[in-house]
Amino acid sequence: MLTLALETSTRLGSIALGRGDELISECALAVRATHSETVLDEVARLLARARVDAGRVERLVIGAGPGSFTGVRIAAALAKGWCHARDVPLHAYSSLRSVAASAGRERVCALFDARRGEVYGAAYRRGGLEGPVLGPAACAIEAWLDRLDDPAAWSFAGEGAIRQRAAIEARGGGVLPAFLGVPRAAALLWLAERIPRGRVDDIELWEPRYVRSPGAERQARRQAARRGGRHGGRR
After folding, report:
1. Are the C-beta atoms of 182 and 7 separated by less than 8 Å?
2. Torsion sign over Cα 99, 208, 76, 205
3. What are the residues facing 22 on neighbouring strands?
4. pTM of the model
5. Distant-in-sequence, close-in-space partners of 139: CB < 8 Å, separation ≥ 6
6. pLDDT tens, N- to C-terminus, the chain (235 residues)
7. What is the DSSP letter of 205?
8. In order of start, what are the domains of the chain with their CATH numbers?
């Protein structure tokens, strides 16, 4: 099955085209400096290099977050529009799972930077074929390490692991090189061939796995709570 995969949950994203287990082409994206129209342009260039017409794509696979809210929304919106217009199925997998699939380790804890000292994390066995045994969740690194059965038994991958290397190594965990912690579209192709339950049943109602609400929403709730507190204190 000719499949197009999109992964835009972190600053370095990618697009891949494959048939079954065969990777035909893959390219990187600077997600922070892009928007949906640019991603579509990159998709068109990728298909052109592979000499594949867009109408021949039989399935889309995307990284469903967590990660950058803007990046995750880009992939979700593009995929929904594509699948609706061309009547092709959509598969979605955690972007953390794609890291586990790329890392090549038996037990991988994938961590993205969630800012404000927190990480998005999920722990997987067998390269993402099992699990997650923990997560996805967003929390401080120490809270995450406390929840693992034995941090020293896990390999940690992803930009969150790089940023929190000192805390992880202090608990006996090993941090994999940065290139093994990048969520890749090619890994999504690999997952789609092995985990069919990633197929989305209702594309219109499906939403990505953000794990926590966008920063603007959280800020609005905090401001509303502060206003409520001030008003509640008046006599």
Report:
1. no
2. positive
3. 19
4. 0.88
5. 118, 119, 121
6. 999 999 999 988 999 999 988 999 999 988 766 677 789 999 999 999 999 999 999 999 999 999 999 999 999 999 999 999 999 999 999 999 999 999 989 999 999 999 888 999 999 999 999 989 999 999 999 999 999 999 999 999 999 999 999 999 999 999 999 999 999 999 999 999 999 999 999 999 999 989 987 653 444 344 445 555 555 555 4
7. T
8. 2-95+183-216 (3.30.420.40), 96-181 (3.30.420.40)
